[in-house]
Specification:
CATH superfamily of the largest domain: Ribonuclease Z/Hydroxyacylglutathione hydrolase-like
Mean pLDDT: 89
Strand order of the largest sheet: 1-2-3-4-5-6-9
Number of helices: 9
Largest sheet: 7 strands, mixed
Number of domains: 2
Low-confidence stretches: 1-36
Strand content: 15-25%
Structural class: alpha/beta
CATH architecture of the largest domain: 4-Layer Sandwich
CATH topology of the largest domain: Metallo-beta-lactamase, Chain A
Length: about 325
């Protein structure tokens, strides 16, 4: 009788362990499937790949001696992303990371790659923001200082720098006070591929980070700067959304130029940000992008630091 009880108990244990295993499998399986689908890679030029992920677009350039990554991903996806690009390209060595600005959706690789000695390139203002405590209007803390080892170790102030890539180079150039005051673009010259960073989004409003000195006039200036590089057959990679060509680029340039002019007119009528949001000069322009309130509010507030900028908002201010 005792033996029978013992056998039944062992069977119960086996059934329990099997149930636990199946439950664990059921829990893990959707996560694994999601992880496999988090990133997709597409070849857009010889040795140049576009990666689309949960936070937007990045580029991977396969050099002779390693990978050059153009923008990163949020920290929670960092290890998965690195494993993905290594597997898909068949290259383990990552030699350079180019960071377009300081926001966490593109700087999550820094904490891994920086301590490994990987070169991290950014504008000097981006380095300073990453190493600082950033506060929004009032006392809300947006960012606390990153570890020294994860900060960009190659920076510049004005113009552009060249990053060697195979028999050509990647131009990393400054876009003065656009989305932030540290935005850069990356132009892979031989491949004729342009990564714009956050000044251009093809699926959403390109909001301005007024806290770190973004400026709507800098957004339209960025279109002027990038427009000098754009050619009819160029592949343009925005921060988020589908890849673009010259016609889509020109449409967005006209959109933001017109919106800025309307916002300047409202500014000169002494309206405030709340009134501009209510007036909504963006109404009907890109309904698929959703509510434009954040773009209008931050963009309008960005005028306040440029009252003497006659080129952008006209004269007549002290």
């Amino acid at each position: 009788m005792q033996a029978k009880i013992w056998v039944n108990t062992m069977n119960d244990v086996k059934h329990f362990l099997l149930a636990a295993f199946l439950l664990a499998l059921a829990i893990v399986q959707p996560v694994t499937a999601w992880a496999a689908e988090a990133f997709t890679m597409t070849r857009i030029a010889e040795h140049v790949f576009h990666v689309e992920g949960p936070a937007g677009n990045t580029l991977v350039a396969v050099d002779n001696d390693g990978l050059i990554l153009i923008d990163g991903v949020p920290a929670e996806h960092a290890r998965e992303y690195l494993g993905f690009v290594r597997e898909k390209t068949g290259v383990d060595n990552i030699k350079t990371l180019i960071v377009s600005h300081w926001h966490p959706e593109v700087t999550g690789l820094n904490a891994i790659l920086g301590p490994m000695g990987v070169e991290i390139i950014a504008h000097e203002n981006t380095r300073q923001w990453l190493g600082s405590t950033i506060r929004e209007r009032g006392e809300a803390i947006l960012h606390t200082p990153d570890a020294y080892e994860s900060l960009p170790d190659r920076t510049f102030y004005w113009g552009s720098i060249q990053v060697p890539f195979r028999n050509d180079s990647i131009e990393v150039g400054y876009l003065l006070q656009s989305h932030t005051d540290g935005d850069v673009y990356a132009w892979i010259k031989g491949a004729n591929v342009l990564y714009t960073g956050p000044v251009i989004r093809s699926d959403a409003w390109a909001t301005i980070d007024e806290t770190t000195n973004g400026f709507i006039g800098g957004i339209t200036d960025a279109y002027d700067t990038l427009g000098k590089l754009v050619t009819p057959d160029m592949v343009i990679v925005p921060a988020t959304g589908p890849l673009m060509g010259k016609s889509e680029f020109d449409d967005l340039a006209a959109l933001y130029t017109g919106l800025k002019a309307e916002m300047v007119a409202l500014f000169r009528q002494s309206l405030g940000p709340e009134e501009v949001v209510l007036a909504n000069p963006a109404d009907g322009l890109r309904p698929e992008w959703g509510d434009a309130s954040e773009f209008l509010d931050e963009g309008f507030r960005s005028f306040y630091g440029h009252l003497r900028n006659g080129r952008q908002i006209g004269g007549g201010f002290p």
